[in-house]
Structure formats: C-alpha cells, structure tokens
Amino acid sequence: MRGQRTATTTTPPPTTQNVAIALELTTASSPLAIDGSESPEMRIQRLVSENPVVIFARSSCCMCHVMKNLLATVGVHPTVIELEEVEIRGLGGDDSAAPVLFVGGSRVGGLEGLVGLHLGGQLVPRLVEVGALAKN
C-alpha cells in the first residue's frame, strides 16, 4: 500500500519510563498503521479505541511531558502520538487543544483534567478499570 503512514514505537533506555510514537511513511502492516485515505478524525478515533491510554500532543510539548511523568508515577506508560497542526483540529475543540489525554476511549482533557482526576482519587481506579494498570 503506497503512501501508508505507520506509527512505530521507539524503545526507551532502561532508565526512561516513556514510550514515544513517531509517524513515518512505510508499507508495513501494524495496529498503528495509518491509511492515507483516513481522515484525521477517523485516525484519532481508531488510535483511541486501540490503546487504553493515549496522549495526543505537539512535539516538544512541556505539558505532555508533565502528563507522561504523572502517569509514569502511578505505573502507566501511555501511547504518545505527536500530531501535525492540521491533525490537532481532529481532536475537537479549539486549535490549541493539545495535549489531550484519552483513557479507555474517553476524553479526559488536558493536563488540568488529568491532575483533577489524580487529586480527586479517581485516576488510579479509572486506569485499573480500563486495564492500563494492574489491580493491587
């Protein structure tokens, strides 16, 4: 399939707790494969439904870094997708809607939504519910 984009996972060093996804053109088949005919909205919906915890962000986003660190602190390593500006519109809301966190297919929102769940004691139960975190 010519022109197909695939997201690939980079393997972090043993001391790093983050997983990054880089989008590149390839013909390989993958669960994160992106068909060029797929709209940004459809692509985002598919990625959200296939992964228990997903962060969509701009590259080098400091708020995304904070989100990843908070999730890593509770033992979850999210799938992080860096989007182009045109793709960010597919997240809904205004053009500055990134980063956006989805847990179990539901939109949590940005950093404020994540911190609100955490401070309210709802983050860990929600992560356990969607299978992103083992029940203790």
TrEMBL record:
Domain Glutaredoxin: residue ranges: 53-106
Q: Please indicate which superkingdom the organism of origin belongs to.
A: Eukaryota
Tell me a GO cellular component: cytoplasm
- Which InterPro entries does the annotation name? GlrX-like_pln_2 (IPR011905), Glutaredoxin (IPR002109), Thioredoxin-like_sf (IPR036249)
Which Gene3D superfamilies has this protein been placed in? Glutaredoxin (3.40.30.10)
Q: For this UniProt record, give its keywords in alphabetical order, as a comma-separated list.
A: Cytoplasm, Redox-active center
Q: Where in the cell is it found?
A: Cytoplasm
PANTHER family listed in its UniProt record: GLUTAREDOXIN (PTHR10168)
The family assignment reads: Belongs to the glutaredoxin family. CC-type subfamily.
Q: Could you identify this protein by its name?
A: Glutaredoxin domain-containing protein
